[in-house]
TrEMBL record:
One of its GO terms (biological process) is peptide metabolic process. Coiled coil: none annotated. This is Dipeptide epimerase. GO terms for molecular function: magnesium ion binding; racemase and epimerase activity.
């Protein structure tokens, strides 16, 4: 029997080709903790815990401490092929720390897939290696957004995600500028990142509807904890509303379903802490006629490979939200996924197909 013998962490700071700007921050690097799990046969699996202070409250230092401490203790000596047992041990080892748990969970899946000689999508039950993604436009004024929107559609992206919620008075004008720039056939979705009050959300979304701007969906219009507010908005607009920061794990999704608080859910490994919980979230949403997407934090090709594998295996009702690694100036890894226009292309190789650091 092969046992897990080593769990290591390494900080990475990956330069971006374009600054990533949101209402909350401007960054020119993706900062993350790379996790490697090795078994007694020398097979190494990769995972990552991204820096997400503003979303989940988790930090690189906290992720390192969690992985090196309780999570390493929980998996060291366990059977590398018993993925169900090892991942359960990770999930139950600590409260919170979803990013750290997600990183170890993914690394264990990568080990198991490599041991079986199959890609991660195949381990999860699919042979699909291509997943379409949207692309986020960095925050800016209307003219800058229109210019970037034209550039991204020329690069092949068919769905643009705009960050709104910073200024309810001008949000509609910026969306209109982007629609003008790209014409009627490009998908436009909005992410308010909790930036509106429920009344502001209804006012802005209704204005967008009145202008006929063809917004596909609006993500997280109000504060994460305000499920009543989220339900109030969802009941008053025609545009589909997607829960992101309101849904980490299964209990959160059950609460959203009970209140009919959203029409769709964005599933992310750094929120739900693992691939099997991610799959269950997607199944649960589907069973209640909710729409689904798989997304990510600002992560590199390791975390994105795992998220894209989940999307490939389970499918999503709308185009996935998996552009984060596209922002990297170059991949810091040998092997792993690549982007072909708006498509994430997963390698036809064991596990995540990561062969080492570039
Ligand atoms: Mg979001």
């Amino acid at each position: 029997m092969s046992r897990i013998v080593e769990v290591t962490t390494e900080r990475m700071s990956v330069p971006l080709h374009t600054p990533f700007v949101t209402a909350l921050r401007r960054t020119e690097t993706t900062d993350t903790v790379l996790v490697r799990v090795t078994d007694s046969d020398g097979v190494t699996g990769w995972g990552e815990a991204p820096q997400v202070w503003q979303v989940t409250g988790e930090s690189l230092a906290g992720a390192e401490a969690c992985v090196a401490g309780p999570l390493a203790a929980a998996v060291t000596g366990t059977d590398a092929d018993d993925l169900a047992a090892t991942c359960r041990a990770v999930a139950g080892a600590v409260a919170g720390n979803h990013g750290a748990k997600g990183a170890v969970d993914v690394a264990l899946h990568d080990v198991a897939a490599r041991r079986r000689g199959v890609s991660l999508p195949v381990l999860l039950g699919s042979t699909t290696l291509r997943v379409a993604t949207d692309v986020t436009l960095a925050a800016g004024d209307a003219d800058a957004l229109a210019e970037t929107a034209r550039t991204r559609t020329a690069e092949g992206f068919g769905v643009l995600k705009l960050k709104v919620g910073t200024d309810a008075a001008t949000d509609a004008a910026r969306v209109a500028a982007v629609r003008d720039a790209v014409g009627p056939d490009v998908g436009i979705r909005l992410d308010a990142n909790q930036g509106w009050t429920p009344r502001e959300a209804v006012r802005v979304i209704s204005a967008l509807e009145d202008k006929g701007l063809g917004v596909e969906l609006v993500e997280q219009p109000v504060a994460a904890a305000d499920l009543d507010g989220l339900a109030w908005v969802t009941a008053r607009v025609d545009t589909p509303v997607m829960a992101d920061e309101s849904v980490y794990g299964l209990r959160d999704l059950v609460a959203v379903i009970h209140r009919r608080a959203a029409d769709l859910v964005n599933v992310k490994l750094a929120k739900c802490g693992g691939l099997s919980t991610g799959r269950t979230l997607l199944d649960l949403a589907r069973a209640h006629e909710m729409g689904t997407a798989v997304g990510s934090m600002m992560e590199t090709h390791v975390g994105l490979g795992a998220a894209a594998s989940l999307a490939a295996a389970c499918g999503t009702s709308v185009v996935a939200d998996l552009d984060a690694a596209w922002w990297a100036r170059e991949s810091p890894y040998l092997g792993g996924l690549r982007y072909d226009g708006a498509t994430v292309v997963l390698p036809d190789a064991p596990g995540l197909g990561i062969e080492g650091l570039a």
